[in-house]
């Protein structure tokens, strides 16, 4: 699942809207919307993100947050470590190899570190 997909699902469920109804109202297939929510599709186009935000009644900051989550929601990330230190390349490779098995607590800690916290 991607951050964007998770948030869309939360907003949709919070408003009691079924996936099929939302898909029909947005003129996309239910299969596409489901794949988007589950992270089985790449980033949605900016126009669709804004269409979803409007449909779900997101305004101002909430719509901007949804746009930012869409940018961070590519399900297959590629890291280019050419020209960086060996330790950075090792980190990228170790993370790629172990990300599925890391405890959620560790993931949240790493995310906090990357965002600038400690």
Short note summarizing the structure:
By secondary structure, the protein is an all-alpha fold.
Task: Please describe what this structure looks like.
- It is a single chain.
- It is built from 7 helices and no strands.
- The protein has 118 residues and is an all-alpha fold.
- Helix 1 packs antiparallel against helix 5 (60-71) and helix 2 (19-26) crosses helix 3.
- 64% of the residues lie in helices and 0% in strands.
- The protein has helices at residues 3-14, 19-26, 30-38, 46-55, 60-71, 86-98, 104-115.
- It folds into 2 domains: 3-71, 434 Repressor (Amino-terminal Domain) (Orthogonal Bundle), CATH 1.10.260; 86-115.
- The mean pLDDT is 92.
How are the secondary structure elements laid out?
Blueprint: H1 3-14, H2 19-26, H3 30-38, H4 46-55, H5 60-71, H6 86-98, H7 104-115
Helix pairs in contact: 1-5, 2-3, 4-5
By secondary-structure content and strand pairing, the structural class works out as mainly alpha
Q: Could you describe the largest sheet, including whether it forms a barrel?
A: none
At CATH level 3, the topology of the largest domain is: 434 Repressor (Amino-terminal Domain)
How would you describe the oligomerization state of the chains in this entry?
Answer: single chain
- Tell me the helix content: 55-70%
CA gyration radius, whole angstroms: 17 Å
Which architecture of the largest domain per CATH?
Orthogonal Bundle
Structural descriptors:
118 residues, single chain, 0% strand, 434 Repressor (Amino-terminal Domain)
């Amino acid at each position: 699942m991607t951050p964007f997909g998770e948030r869309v699902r939360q907003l949709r469920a919070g408003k009691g809207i079924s996936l099929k109804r939302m898909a029909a109202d947005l003129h996309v297939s239910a299969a596409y919307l489901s794949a988007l929510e589950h992270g089985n599709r790449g980033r949605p186009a900016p126009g669709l993100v804004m269409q979803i935000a409007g449909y779900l009644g997101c305004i101002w900051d909430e719509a901007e947050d949804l746009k930012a989550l869409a940018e961070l929601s590519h399900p297959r990330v590629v890291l280019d470590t050419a020209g960086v230190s060996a330790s950075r390349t090792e980190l990228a490779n170790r993370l790629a190899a172990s990300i599925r098995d890391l405890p959620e607590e560790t993931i949240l800690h790493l995310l906090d570190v990357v965002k600038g916290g400690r």
